[in-house]
Amino acid sequence: MSSVLKDKSILLGITGSIAAYKAAEIVRLLKRRGASVYPVMTQAATHFIHPLTLTSLAAQEASLDLFEMKRGRMEHLSLAQLADLVLIAPVTANVMGKIAHGIADDLLTTTVMATKVPIILAPAMDEGMYENAVVQANIRELKSRGMHLIGPEEGELASGEVGKGRMSEPPKIVDYAERILQSRGDFAGKLFMVTAGPTREALDKVRFISSYSSGKMGYALAEEGIDRGARIILISGPSPLIPPPQAEFYSVETALEMRKRVMEKFSAVDGVLMAAAVSDFRPKLVHKSKIKKNACTSLKLDLVQNPDILKELGRIKKDKLLVGFCAETSSLKEKAEEKLKEKNLDLIVANDITLEGAGFGVDTNIVLLMDRDGEVTSLDRRSKREVARKIWDKVKELMPA
Ligand code: C5P
């Protein structure tokens, strides 16, 4: 069977780790599956493997120089443009740190900054370095920005010790690269709607009822969906986040506005991922001016229920795919099951907001996925982007053939 790597251009970054010698085998394996390989080395990498080795195996000159002109352009721009995938193997703690913090001071890191294609990192370092809190924080940052990490693994290290930090073996890395490229086409030609953020329900000219929702889960879903080939309509309540430029974006304020937009777009989409924390209630009456404290010693708010948008969609969904979310403080599984049935969903993503590292505002989530057949997947704490990846995996499984 022909590999998805066939006729693809892979930018292979090599950084200064002893594992750099294994890059030679990665070039071989990529070429064997039909890819063109463009090696880009850091200066440090040249201490571990000679550029000529990579040049010969790749049949492409290994690049190092940020200021060289090739293919009529600055090298980093032409590389960023021609690549279908960036794979950095091995990647050192230093280069991960640079990428995580937006430092671009050589050809490799500058190219990474300029590219829009998927980026795979295969770390290699000593166990002590790998366990360093700053390295772990950088890894989390890179993952939350949608980068793919493979390894490191437990095994023999350059120090002679056995521990975690060994780069994954080349065949495993190349299989992984194949899977990532494959997933780019998962939702090609499909249109999904994602809702995100809170809604705001005005009380008077200055105050509103809302929730702690930040929009992070919904925006991560939109980004991941786009990366996997879907067209995305993103409908968001107030959020400080920047919507992905490829999304068709609508900003809304209230639950009623959100409902209007969702209904307007529903007939065109293949599915909806309703991550928004829609306010269940709104004030019956919005005061025309500011409510004054000296007019009363206590204040009773008269609230009316907002429409349950997702429940409405559940009634008219036909074969469209519906994903709901629920934030609970107890009996997670029971409540998820109840809502899945009540709203006629294909999948529900439930999180217990009492857990540290889950729910509103934070960068990570701990969720339970329950599908329409009752299959449950529990995900431990991970970045919202990684949770989004798992949700889209499940959506793919549940999509009609
Ligand atoms: O019933 P509950 O509010 O827990 O359900 C949450 C799910 O329903 C979320 O997916 C949320 O976006 C959606 N929802 C809605 N309209 C509402 C309230 C919640 O679509 N008024």
From TrEMBL:
Residues 192-401 are annotated as: Phosphopantothenate--cysteine ligase. Keywords: Coiled coil, Decarboxylase, Flavoprotein, FMN, Ligase, Lyase, Magnesium, Metal-binding, Multifunctional enzyme. Residues 1-191 are annotated as: Phosphopantothenoylcysteine decarboxylase. This is Coenzyme A biosynthesis bifunctional protein CoaBC. Residues 188-397 form the DNA/pantothenate metabolism flavoprotein C-terminal domain. Its cofactor is FMN; Mg(2+). Binds 1 FMN per subunit. Residues 326-353 form a coiled coil. Catalyzes two sequential steps in the biosynthesis of coenzyme A. In the first step cysteine is conjugated to 4'-phosphopantothenate to form 4-phosphopantothenoylcysteine. In the second step the latter compound is decarboxylated to form 4'-phosphopantotheine. Catalyzes two steps in the biosynthesis of coenzyme A. In the first step cysteine is conjugated to 4'-phosphopantothenate to form 4-phosphopantothenoylcysteine, in the latter compound is decarboxylated to form 4'-phosphopantotheine. The keyword Protein biosynthesis does not apply. It catalyses: (R)-4'-phosphopantothenate + L-cysteine + CTP = N-[(R)-4-phosphopantothenoyl]-L-cysteine + CMP + diphosphate + H(+); N-[(R)-4-phosphopantothenoyl]-L-cysteine + H(+) = (R)-4'-phosphopantetheine + CO2. Its EC number is 4.1.1.36, 6.3.2.5. In the C-terminal section; belongs to the PPC synthetase family. In the N-terminal section; belongs to the HFCD (homo-oligomeric flavin containing Cys decarboxylase) superfamily.
